[in-house]
Every structure is written in structure tokens, then in C-alpha cells.
Amino acid sequence: MVIQIKSNHGIQVSEGIKITDDILITMNNDLQRALLKPKAERHWIMVIDRKKCVGCHACTAGCISENKLPPKIYYRPVLEKEEGKYPNVKMSFTPRPCMQCDHPPVFPCVL
């Protein structure tokens, strides 16, 4: 039995297993498809949707942990900016991508 979740939150039942709106499943499927290609044909890129950034700094913490950085060293900061005037004030966040490599593996993809 398959439960297929549609974007209008309706549920459709049919044979097999497929969930269409779960972003983690979509990302995993994309990764598996990319890994089937020969290494020379794989291209990786990171896209940042600034509209979805809430300033949680999880990307900064993950980078610090992954790269075992010393205190107060940040390869991937999130810049914060207060915009507007009272009472219409909002915060905007700009996650800055990694900038520590001279020749990052993603660079050829963005040319």
C-alpha cells in the first residue's frame, strides 16, 4: 500500500510507497541519482534561500563542528541586519557561504 501526500494535504492511497512532498526524501533521491554518475560528471553546488533563513545559526554551528574550528573563528557566519523604523521593524539574515578554501570543490560549477 502507498500513501502519497499531495501539496493540498489530501492523501491518495495506491500500490507501492511514495511520499512526494517530504523534502528530505526528495533530497535523498536527488543524491542517490547524482551518485550513480561517474565522479568526473558530478557537480555540487549550494543554494541559499535567504527568505527561509530565520537566523538560527545552525549552519554556523554545523560548520564549526565539522571543521573543528577554534573559538571565535567562523567560516560561515550569518550576518544580521535590522531594517525599518518603529513600529515596522524587522530583522533580515544573510548566511554567508564558506570562504576558507583557495580552490573550493564547488567553484567550477558556479562559473
Blueprint (SSEs and pairs):
Blueprint: E1 2-5, E2 11-14, H1 23-35, H2 58-67, E3 78-85, E4 88-95
Terminal CA distance reads 45 Å
State the domain count: 2
How is the main sheet built?
2 strands, antiparallel
Strand content: 15-25%
What Rg do the Cα atoms give?
A: 19 Å
User: How does CATH name the architecture of the largest domain?
Assistant: 2-Layer Sandwich
Q: What is CATH's topology name of the largest domain?
A: Alpha-Beta Plaits
Text of the CATH class of the largest domain: Alpha Beta
Low-confidence stretches: 1-11
- Give the beta-strand count: 4
What percent of residues adopt helix (DSSP H or I)? 10-25%
Structural class: alpha+beta
Shape: extended
Spatial strand sequence of the major β-sheet? 1-2
Counted by DSSP, the helix tally is 2
Mean pLDDT: 76
Order of helices and strands: EEHHEE
